[in-house]
Structure formats: structure tokens, C-alpha cells
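Late entry, evening session. Most of the bench is empty. Finally got around to the prediction I had been postponing all week. Sequence below, unchanged from the version circulated by S.P.
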Amino acid sequence: MKNLLFIYNANSRKTSGFLDALHKAVSPKTYNCNLCGITYGIFKEDKTWKNFREASDLSMEFLHLDEFKKRYASKFGYKFTFPIVLSANQNELEIFISTEELNSLKNAEELIQVITNRQKAN
């Protein structure tokens, strides 16, 4: 299986993390990173997601938007919308779970099901 890159639609700075947590708590419906909302609660990682991630044999990497842009901007530009899950193989990135699909998911169980089903298909 290819390496999966999970890119959050949030920046990595500490102040961003605090503001994101506050936004999730006060107005979760307007929070612009459903991947963050699914994999993390307000203050800690979702237990179901954490158990899956730790037990999985998938190669997974988690990047904030600013980290992704810094690492891949010169090669891939900004052709993706965020949040997104990409599969990386050799020197190519392909969409594994689109922004639209991520935004339609309601919880960690649904995300895990999508990943598991796509992993089996490959």
C-alpha cells in the first residue's frame, strides 16, 4: 500500500491550535476542517481513530496545511483543496479521499471504513 498523507485544513502554529479548538467548541458546524473534527475532539485524539491508527499497518503521515505547502509546493503547487487524504508513491500524489468526501463523513468509524475499503481494492 502507498503512503497516505492526511492534510488538515489548519496550520501548525500553537496559536492556530488554540483557535481551532475554540472554534470546534463554539461553532463546530462552521469549522473548516472536518478531518480535524473526525480525528480529534476539542482537546485530544478521537479514541476510535487512535486505536485504528496505532493498530494499522498502513504507512500514514499527518501534515498541517502550512507543512504540506512548504514540503510539496515547488513540486505539486496548490492544486488540491483541503482537508484531503493523498496517496504518495514514488514522486506522485493522488487523491485517496477528496475534500468533498471527507466533508461528508460524520465520524471516525466512517473514515476508517472508507480507508479500509480502498485499501482492500488496491
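Two things to note before I forget:
The chain has a mean pLDDT of 81.
The chain has one domain: 3-121.
Will write this up properly tomorrow.
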